[in-house]
């Protein structure tokens, strides 16, 4: 009861200084909860944000991958991540195998994917009865793909995959084509060369492997600007491309967007040779969403394929994530250091003003430990109030950061609050250390006689 009475009396005096301690702890808790909350939830959000700018895994036929590795032609899928080849493919994967990507262990991390059949065709946008050289082009890159194809999985679930989501950064004048139709998109460079506008119809001509000359009329639903060499190409449904090239159920590439965990030493070791891992390492790697482990699992379900991560995209995701987390952790540390300095100074000033009161307590029999516990209890109560208010404010700040930066809320994990309260406890204890030492060195006789 003695301590409770003293705590009550302490609250009634020096109110302003105690309020400053509470505000200091509150501000530190606010910054710490907000920053650590974002740190623990920022990984998936950053990967999702960065993955809007392209695929981070490329799947291609094994024979093509061997040739690329042999001649150093984009062995890490860097050069094949965008754009088209100068020649038609000679090895293929089955388009019917593509939905199997959503059956791997990390299926929920696969946010989108799109198969491609890259061929070249002659384009004539004029009437067949009119010979207009200004409206013709030879060897135009044609990309057969999905745009927004609905897939019904054996599990009963449905998913939508295609270029509509894979190329979200494109500037599109018009609308996306429908899958399994005679519609298509044309790049701004090619459209300008041919004088084509949306709504026009062009005719594609393709000489197949058996020597026949196929043609297909395509209605242009939109003109896109990709900002790169893709502006020289046309995108049409994969089924239409397969008919034009007489290559049924054939594709030569799959672009995959996946939420991944940044590479570490284990992931880099596994990407070189998974068979070199120990059993424990292999299980850890396989059950972690590294780009290399997701690529490995895709190879398991797509026969005759090689899946490789796009190094630039994967490295960018990991680098940005680490730097963002480092900045936020640094801000948390600096706020705790500032809180420790402020609390230490405020406690020292408070003890200086209350020296006669504390000396009197010691003179009437209170031990150094009892007086120290009194001061710690008072500081703990004030800090607890500030920490609780700061935690609530920090949660709100984290949500604001999430909506402003990522367009969605931040999931606040209980571990964040536990960690912040532990860190604040240590901070207050460290800040109180010098004040406790001054209490231990307090001599009642000298203080009470004004010396």
Write the layout of secondary structure elements.
Blueprint: H1 2-12, H2 15-51, E1 57-61, H3 62-70, E2 93-94, E3 110-124, E4 136-145, E5 149-152, E6 158-161, H4 163-166, E7 171-174, E8 183-187, H5 188-194, E9 201-207, E10 213-225, E11 234-237, H6 238-245, E12 250-251, E13 253-258, H7 265-272, H8 279-286, H9 291-301, E14 305-309, H10 311-353, H11 355-363, H12 368-406, H13 414-440, H14 444-448
Parallel strand pairs: 4-11, 8-10
Antiparallel strand pairs: 1-13, 1-14, 2-12, 3-4, 3-9, 3-13, 5-6, 7-10, 8-11, 9-10
Helix pairs in contact: 2-10, 2-12, 2-13, 10-13, 12-13
Q: What report would you give on this structure?
A:
- With 451 residues, the chain is of the alpha+beta class.
- It is built from 14 helices and 14 strands.
- It has helices spanning 2-12, 15-51, 62-70, 163-166, 188-194, 238-245, 265-272, 279-286, 291-301, 311-353, 355-363, 368-406, 414-440, 444-448; strands spanning 57-61, 93-94, 110-124, 136-145, 149-152, 158-161, 171-174, 183-187, 201-207, 213-225, 234-237, 250-251, 253-258, 305-309.
- The strands form 3 sheets. A 6-stranded mixed barrel has the order 3-4-11-8-10-9. A two-stranded antiparallel sheet has the order 2-12.
- β9 (201-207) and β10 form a beta hairpin.
- The two termini are 32 Å apart.
- Residues 70-83 and 127-131 have low confidence and may be disordered.
């Amino acid at each position: 009861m003695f301590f409770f009475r003293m705590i009550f009396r302490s609250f009634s005096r020096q109110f302003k200084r105690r309020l400053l301690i509470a505000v200091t702890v509150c501000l530190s808790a606010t910054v710490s909860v907000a920053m650590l909350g974002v740190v623990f939830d920022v990984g998936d959000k950053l990967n999702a944000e960065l993955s809007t700018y392209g695929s981070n895994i490329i799947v291609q036929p094994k024979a093509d991958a061997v040739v690329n590795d042999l001649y150093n032609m984009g062995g890490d899928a860097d050069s094949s991540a965008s754009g088209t080849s100068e020649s038609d493919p000679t090895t293929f994967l089955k388009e019917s195998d593509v939905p199997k990507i959503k059956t791997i262990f990390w299926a929920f991390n696969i946010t989108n994917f799109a198969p491609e059949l890259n061929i070249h065709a002659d384009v004539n946008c004029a009437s067949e009865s009119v010979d207009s050289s200004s409206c013709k082009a030879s060897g135009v890159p044609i990309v057969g793909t999905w745009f927004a194809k609905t897939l019904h999985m054996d599990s009963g679930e449905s998913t939508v995959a295609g270029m509509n989501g894979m190329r979200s950064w494109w500037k599109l004048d018009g609308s996306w084509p429908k899958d399994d139709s005679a519609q298509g998109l044309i790049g701004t460079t090619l459209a300008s060369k041919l004088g084509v506008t949306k709504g026009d119809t062009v005719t594609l001509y393709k000489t197949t492997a058996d020597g026949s000359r196929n043609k297909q009329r395509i209605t242009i639903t939109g003109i896109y600007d990709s900002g790169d060499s893709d502006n020289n190409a046309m995108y049409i449904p994969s089924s239409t491309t397969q008919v034009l090239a007489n290559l049924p159920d054939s594709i030569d590439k799959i672009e995959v967007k996946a939420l991944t965990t940044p590479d570490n030493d284990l992931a880099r070791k596994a990407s070189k040779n998974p068979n070199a891992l120990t059993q424990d390492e292999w299980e850890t790697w396989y059950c972690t969403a590294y780009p290399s482990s997701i690529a490995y699992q895709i190879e398991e379900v797509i026969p005759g394929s090689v899946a490789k991560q796009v190094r630039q995209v994967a490295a960018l995701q990991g680098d940005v994530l680490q730097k963002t987390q480092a900045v936020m952790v640094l801000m948390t540390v600096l706020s705790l250091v500032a809180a420790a300095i402020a609390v230490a100074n405020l406690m020292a000033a408070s003890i200086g003003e209350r020296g006669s009161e504390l000396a009197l307590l010691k003179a009437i029999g209170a031990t150094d430990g009892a007086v120290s516990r009194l001061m710690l209890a008072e500081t703990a109560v004030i800090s607890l109030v500030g920490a609780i208010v700061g935690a609530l404010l920090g949660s709100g700040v984290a949500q604001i950061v999430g909506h402003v930066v990522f367009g969605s809320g931040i999931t606040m994990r209980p571990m964040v609050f536990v960690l912040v309260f532990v860190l604040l406890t240590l901070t207050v204890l460290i800040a109180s250390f010098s004040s406790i030492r001054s209490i231990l060195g307090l001599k009642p006789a000298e203080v009470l006689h004004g010396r």
